[in-house]
Amino acid sequence: ALEVTQPMNDLESDYAEMKAQYQENKFELKSLQDSLDVDTSVSLEGVQQRYAATLANGGLDQENQQKAKQIARVKRRSSEGKKPRSPSERRIGVIRRRSREREERQQN
After folding, report:
1. Are 20 and 12 in contact (CB under 8 A)?
2. The whole model's pTM is what?
């Protein structure tokens, strides 16, 4: 009977320790948020305004566009959790991607 209760005691002590750490982190986060005195609604509005201004000025700068293209390429390569496409679907995708890239080059 002693062997059965020992794992339960370990689990209970682990739970108590994790809960204590959670409470400490929660308190520390609250104190940091209070010390920064950040109003999230105001900061979100600021982000939205900057985004709208960026779009109005003609979009993102060239460096960010290149990074976005690079990320898109990596996303295309990673096929985790996706079902394989048929050969015709792959051909259509290649045609669409090439025409999109051609249009982007013509715009620049």
Report:
1. no
2. 0.30
